Amino acid sequence: DTEVTQTPKHLVMGMTNKKSLKCEQHMGHRAMYWYKQKAKKPPELMFVYSYEKLSINESVPSRFSPECPNSSLLNLHLHALQPEDSALYLCASSPRDRSSGNTIYFGEGSWLTVV
Amino acid sequence: KNEVEQSPQNLTAQEGEFITINCSYSVGISALHWLQQHPGGGIVSLFMLSSGKKKHGRLIATINIQEKHSSLHITASHPRDSAVYICAVWRGGADGLTFGKGTHLIIQP
Q1: Nearest CB partner across the interface for A55, out of B31, B45, B95
Q2: Average pLDDT, whole number, for chain A?
């Protein structure tokens, strides 16, 4: 199983809503990532979890709140978002070990629209 | 100046043509990825390179560590190759990929 599974695929939410994006991998990878991608732009790193601990937060607004309940799951909790937060949110995972540490797998992404 | 530069930004070619996309980077890296993204959104890693050359089907990727340059070649291009191709690097000691801006490739029948 070399899949990173993201749900939901599409999400429309109002600016006062609270919602969550979910990401799951069963490859035993120890690093998981959230990226944000706007149209016709490359992905931008938001958060990195390494061994279930938040290791990088790229100055992301607090209306985005990541959570790593266990080594297979990564959530992104959304609250009081703005229309400019509408984007494709990509989850990725990587082993980050000596033998295959630089491989990376991406999910299909969650398309978020904030209205 | 971006740490990872790709060229061209856009490329339209006829089916069957040989395609080359270039990537130059200015930082120390532990590995370089060539990624493919279709309009549906998902990203697939086509190659991971730390030296030399790799081939998979009609795709070939090369890297020159001394010159900090990599190329992705597509032989006998096909309309299904139409996608955005992104060069991305793992920087030494850092986490998360650093991405180029991508090359939007269209192969016309």
Answers
A1: B95
A2: 91
The answer to whether residue B1 scores a pLDDT higher than 80 is: no
Q: Which of A33, A105, A106, A108 to mutate to test the interface with B (most CBs of B within 10 A)?
A: A106
Q: How far does the CA of residue B48 sit from the closest CA of chain A (Å)?
A: 7
Give chain B positions within 8 Å (CB) of A88.
41
**Could you tell me which of A105, A57, A42 has the C-alpha nearest to residue B4?**
A42
Range 24-83 of B in CB contact (< 8 A) with A: 30-31, 33, 35, 40-45, 48, 50
Q: pLDDT at position A102, please?
A: 77
Q: What is the CA radius of gyration of chain A?
A: 14
| pLDDT at residue A98 in the model | 59
pLDDT tens-digit readout, B76-106: 999 999 999 999 998 755 577 899 999 999 9
